[in-house]
Specification:
Elements (H helix, E strand, L loop, with lengths): L3 E7 L5 H9 L4 E5 L16 H11 L4 E5 L7 H5 L5 E6 L3 H8 L1
Parallel strand pairs: 1-3, 1-4, 2-3
């Protein structure tokens, strides 16, 4: 069985919780929302990187399609692009008008 990693990302209040729920309901799929431990927004030298996180998700889950959805993946996009094949990105976008309305 070929396994596939799914990462969902986007800014806050853009539908990430719904994206995680929809993906997790698919056959042979296990996707979580902001699975702890959370990654820091600022990438520090020597700190655990996203690669270790992806390897742990693959190691601890048995489904064919596995992944996580979170805002904190945004700074790690470059790292995840080099993490290996079988990685699929999903994103949520919110209009600036919608974001502004949320802040009022």
């Amino acid at each position: 069985m070929k396994r596939q990693m799914i990462l969902g990302m986007g800014a806050g209040q853009c539908g990430l919780q719904l994206l995680a729920k929809i993906l997790d309901k698919q056959p042979r799929c296990r996707v979580t929302l902001e699975q702890p431990p959370l990654l820091p927004w600022v990438i520090e030298p020597g700190a655990p990187r996203v690669r270790e996180r992806l390897e742990r998700i693959l190691r601890t889950r048995t489904e064919q399609f596995v992944g996580d959805v979170a805002t904190f993946y945004l700074p790690y996009v470059d790292d995840t692009l080099h993490a290996g094949s079988g990685l699929v990105f999903g994103g949520c976008k919110r209009t600036s008008c919608g974001t502004g309305a949320e802040c009022r």
